[in-house]
Amino acid sequence: MATPAYKLHYFAGPGRAEAARLLFAIGNVPFEDVHYTYETLAAFKPKAPFGQVPVLELADGKMLAQSGAIDRYVAKLAGLYPEDPLDAARADMVAFHMVDFMDLFMPTWSMAPEERAKARQAILEGKGKDKLLSLSKIIEEAEAAGGWVAGGKMSYADVIVYVYLSGIVSKRMEGVPPNLLDSYPVLKAFRNKVAKLPPVLAFYTQHAGEDRASFRPDDE
Ligand SMILES: N[C@@H](CCC(=O)N[C@@H](CS)C(=O)NCC(=O)O)C(=O)O
After folding, report:
1. Residues 89, 140: one domain?
2. 98: region left, alpha or beta (phi > 0 left; psi from -120 to 50 alpha)
3. Ligand 1 centroid distance, CA of 52 (Å)
4. Is residue 213 one of the residues assigned to a domain?
5. Is the minimum distance from the CB of 15 to ligand 1 under 6 angstroms?
């Protein structure tokens, strides 16, 4: 088998590389998934443009950093980036919103476990709730307009929404109730719709494991 033209450098868990992995898989674009631990990452850091991962390495050795840039590039390779400029902007708008949502939780990672759980609950009752409610409205409109966030067909934005909604209820997010999306039925239904797409189901059958259990459909 030929060596894939792309190497995605990240930790083994989903995190900030998961959307790119899934976009590669949905688009049937071969890539090598290179995994690090915090210890082994030290040797790779000097090659990473900003000393962080994810990094996408191209066949000629060029290194592309920032998950948002990687996701958009891979979306284009996979045929999942809208061609119409306004549809593309709408897809980007929703993708940036999901990053804003996840970024709310960033300060909680350095907290002690008990403090962390409380802080996460507070986020979910405050700004996190606002962001999920506004997302719910957008998804409701999308469902009424053909079922997808941008341009009437599936795009990378739908994948990002699915990845972040699945990630927020994963085992790693202690303090976040696993049934959080019961309070957001539109989001829950949308997450399940994407989870049941054949390439998505196939990806999570191939990548089974506790840290990805929440990426499966709820009714399994
Ligand atoms: N804005 C960047 C953030 C990248 C980032 O924070 N990466 C973390 C892992 S999720 C990292 O490399 N941590 C190790 C370190 O900074 O040494 C992106 O979205 O790619």
Report:
1. yes
2. alpha
3. 5
4. no
5. yes
16 lines ligand 1 (CB under 6 A): yes
The answer to whether position 2 is within a domain reads no
Report the nearest-CA residue for atom 16 of ligand 1: 52
Structure tokens at 203: 């990806």
Q: How far is CA 184 from CA 94, 136, 156, 178, in A?
A: 17, 7, 22, 13
Query: What is the domain count for the chain?
Result: 2
Would you state the structure tokens that stand for residue 167, as one six-digit string?
């990630």
Ligand 1 mutation pick, 9, 34, 52, max ligand atoms within 8 A of CB = 52
Same domain, 57 and 93: no
Out of 48, 77, 106, pick the residue that ends a domain: 77
- Which domain covers residue 70, as residue numbers? 7-77
Per-residue pLDDT of the chain (220 residues; tens, 9 = 90+): 678 899 999 999 999 999 999 999 999 999 999 999 999 999 999 999 999 999 999 999 999 999 999 999 999 999 999 999 999 999 999 999 999 999 999 999 999 988 999 999 999 999 999 999 999 999 999 999 999 999 999 999 999 999 999 999 999 899 999 999 999 999 999 999 999 999 999 999 999 999 999 999 999 8
Let me know if residue 185 belongs to a domain: yes
Distance, in Å, from the CA atom of 35 to the CA atom of 115, rounded to the nearest integer, reads 30
| Closest ligand 1 atom, residue 15 Cα | 10
